[in-house]
Design brief:
The structure holds two protein chains of two kinds. By secondary structure, chain A is α/β, with parallel strands linked by helices. Helix content of chain A is 37%, strand content 25%. In chain A, the strands form two sheets. Chain A has a six-stranded mixed beta sheet, with helices on both faces. Chain A has a four-stranded antiparallel beta sheet with strand order 2-1-4-5, covered by helices on one side. The longest helix of chain A is centred in the last third of the chain and has 18 residues. In chain B, strands 1-2 form a two-stranded antiparallel sheet. Classes of the chains: A alpha/beta, B mainly alpha.
């Protein structure tokens, strides 16, 4: 288990191998009132992989990743991130753990009252307090270059297109060097060209920042472009797990309807 | 065989008998339990605000921004309203006082009325509309667009960053706005008197403030801190607990104005009773 107190100050490195589960979810259950959204979900995210979670709208995909970062409390089961049981952490420990997780929201979730620069500064000033002004500026320019929007630094979120907002939101998550990335519907509402660009960006982030990612989507093109492994959810349960070829070759009507 | 839903029943503790509940009783029970849950929710919210206010790492920059937003940006509205309030009050009161030949008491009467009651309550109601709705709508839209969630996963406490700063800023800025409103109200009164006469400002000033004593001023300012806190808490609570749809933003803004206005009047009534008992 990682000592979160030390970990938050980033004085120790995390020793991981390709077979180390970065996230391990066991028998996760989540219900809203009488409606059970997740029923005994179990999955593992290994170091350095892109795990795509596919499923129809309302199948509990977004609820799953919100439970992983404890934005929602689960009703049962366990979630282990980097060896820490998320359910048993206190708020300080949880914050320390969240510093190592990047979350790209479906709605981009850029702070409306702040410029692009201030949006990027916001997590950086709180998570990497040791950086001075020059280093903060350098980091902001670096991530903006990486997402190809260096000239948008002083714009307000309302002046950006949907694709640009997604890119800035991605820049805001990678600026703190997360070990794990959680993407909630990264290509929803975008045109096919921009969707392809975002998918390419997800792969670039994986290579450049050595992240392990869970990508929630119902966009098959995005899944094809990014997945190392795929889990399909149906009615709150894991329906099928495998490589992209397993899904391409499946004769199951539901899988075929997705991968036609 | 299909199992029917059981008829709702409660146990009479005195007799031990089981009593069947009618649909109307069930509805009333639902309303009461919703109300009590709401009260409990607000109490926990206030407890959370207090806890976060005194915990480490105060968001000072955001607090200053909120002071600017709440204080400075409300000032023109408060100034205009205060001046008009003074003019209208003076014009309306003048004929009644003239009947008794007490026109010379007009500056003192207007000053006392504005400082003790009209200034604080009018300013608080305007702020309930402007600040309360602003907080409800802003936090509500942040909730809908997942900005509050984004803040939370960035290891930032949204309660501390968004709510505590706004509540404290509203609590501290409202008394200052009331002072401005009082000043503009009294100035407006001078303008109102001069519409039908010619009174020197220095004479007006001495007559007005010769009547006002410390105990007219002090309780009136103290209660405005509570007005500010109520407006901040209600506005933030409504925005922070807004639902997920865009419709919720409108509902949050609207209910923030309605409830904070009502709460301001209730707090005012309590404050007046307490002041009356103490003086």
């Amino acid at each position: 288990m990682i000592n979160l107190k030390t970990y938050s100050k980033e004085k120790i490195s995390v020793v991981t191998t390709p077979l180390t589960p970065m996230i391990e979810v066991n028998n996760l259950r989540k219900a809203f009132g009488v409606q059970e959204v997740l029923k005994n979900i179990s999955l593992k995210l290994y170091n350095g992989e892109n795990l795509v979670v596919l499923g129809k709208s309302g199948s509990g995909k977004s609820v799953l990743i919100k439970c992983i970062v404890r934005l929602l409390y689960s009703n049962g089961g366990t979630i282990n991130i980097l060896g820490n049981d998320v359910g048993s952490l206190n708020m300080k420990q949880l914050d320390a753990l969240r510093m190592k997780i990047g979350f790209l929201f479906q709605s981009s979730a850029l702070y409306d009252s702040m410029t692009v620069k201030q949006n990027l500064e916001f997590p950086l000033r709180r998570i990497k307090r040791e950086l001075n002004e020059k280093e903060i500026d350098e980091k902001i320019h670096e991530v903006l270059e990486n997402v190809g929007l260096a000239d948008s630094i002083n714009k307000m979120p309302s002046q950006l297109s949907g694709g640009m907002r997604k890119r800035i939101s991605l820049a805001r998550t990678i600026i703190v060097d997360p070990l794990i990335m959680l993407y909630d519907e990264p290509t929803t509402g975008l045109d096919p060209v921009t969707s392809d660009e975002i998918s390419a960006l997800i792969n670039e982030v994986q290579k450049k920042y050595k992240t392990s990612s869970i990508i929630i989507t119902h966009d098959i093109e995005c899944a094809r472009a990014t997945a190392n492994r795929i889990i399909m959810l149906k009615d709150g349960e894991v329906y099928l797990e495998g490589k992209i070829e397993d899904f391409n070759n499946s004769t199951d009507p539901l899988i075929k309807s997705f991968f036609k | 065989m299909k199992k029917l839903n059981p008829v709702p029943r409660i146990k009479n503790f005195a007799t031990g008998q089981s009593i069947r509940l009618s649909e109307k009783t069930m509805e009333e029970k639902e309303i009461v339990s919703t109300f009590l849950l709401g009260v409990g929710d607000v109490t926990l919210f206030i407890k959370h605000i207090f806890k976060e206010t005194f915990s480490r790492r105060f968001e000072f920059k955001e607090f200053l921004r909120q002071c600017y937003e709440i204080g400075n940006k409300s000032l023109p509205l408060i100034a205009v309203t205060g001046a008009i309030m003074g003019i209208v009050f003076t014009i309306q009161s003048r004929p009644s006082l003239a009947k008794f030949g007490a026109e010379s008491m007009l500056p003192g009467m207007v000053a006392v009325s504005i400082i003790r009651e009209i200034g604080p309550i009018i300013t608080a109601l305007i702020c309930a509309g402007k600040i309360g709705s602003g907080m409800g709508a802003e936090l509500g839209s942040m909730k809908v667009t997942e900005q509050i969630d984004a803040m939370e996963v960035s290891a930032t406490n949204p309660m501390k960053y968004l709510v505590v700063t706004r509540v404290i800023a509203a609590t501290l800025m409202l008394p200052i706005l009331v002072l401005f409103s009082d000043a503009f109200g009294i100035f407006g009164s001078w303008l109102g008197i001069n519409m039908k006469g010619n009174v020197n400002f220095v004479l007006f000033f001495f007559q007005a403030f010769g009547t006002v004593n410390f105990m007219d001023f002090f309780p009136a300012i103290i209660k405005t801190f509570f007005f500010g806190a109520v407006i901040g808490i209600v506005g933030c609570y409504k925005g922070y607990t807004a639902g997920r749809g865009t419709e919720s933003v409108g509902i949050a803004a609207n209910s923030a104005v309605v409830i904070s206005s009502l709460m301001v009047i209730i707090v005012d009534m309590i404050a007046v009773q307490i002041t009356d008992m103490l003086l």
